[in-house]
Amino acid sequence: MRKRMVFVMVMGLLLVSSLALAARVKIVTQEAQIRKDKKFFAPAVAGVPYGTIVDELERRGDWLRVSYQGKQGWLHVSAVKEQKFSLSSLASQRAEETGSEEVALAGKGFTPQVEMAFRDRNPAMRYDLVDQVRGYRVTEAELLAFIQAGDLREEGGRP
């Protein structure tokens, strides 16, 4: 009986320590693309929405190998912020709360208040065009075709 109790305690400590060592990061871009390889032009494995918490499995330079909804791939560090979690928050896959400062940073500083003040100072500004550009979507296939047609290459010369 005593051996079993010691075994259960040791296993519990191992579980808690492994959870404490597991790195988790929060997506801070509108939608981050998990890539098949450590390249911006690599095919996307999955899209991850703003505020989502993903598990960091490995770090190589400016790239993180992450796991999200059973899929693994690479994210650039510019798309994430490291998170510190209590054990009670580890079960959550979404950020519990997003502050206005964080949202402002994600939106390049335009909170509703900043935008209203800017509109007041610039009444001739064509916000409908900004909304039109923000609504434009490019699929991964279209992006890849554009990259290939333009013979664009990443640093180091490899496509």
Distance from first to last alpha carbon: 62 Å
Q: Give me the oligomer status.
A: single chain
Task: Report mean pLDDT, rounded to a whole number.
Answer: 75
Characterize the overall form.
Answer: flat
Range of strand content:
15-25%
Q: Give the strand tally.
A: 7
- Report the helical percentage: 25-40%
Main sheet properties: 5 strands, antiparallel
Radius of gyration: 21 Å
Order of helices and strands: HEEEEEEEHHHH
Supply the number of helical segments: 5
Q: Determine the structural class based on helices, strands and strand pairing.
A: alpha+beta
Task: Enumerate the spans where pLDDT stays under 50 for 5 or more consecutive residues.
Answer: 86-90
Give the strand line-up of the largest sheet. 6-5-4-1-7
What would you note in describing this structure?
- By secondary structure, the protein is of the alpha+beta class.
- It is built from five helices and seven strands.
- The strands form two sheets. The chain has a five-stranded antiparallel beta sheet. A two-stranded antiparallel ribbon has the order 2-3.
- A hairpin with a 2-residue loop joins strand 5 (63-68) and strand 6 (71-76).
- The protein is flat.
- It starts with a helix and ends in a 10-residue tail after the last helix.
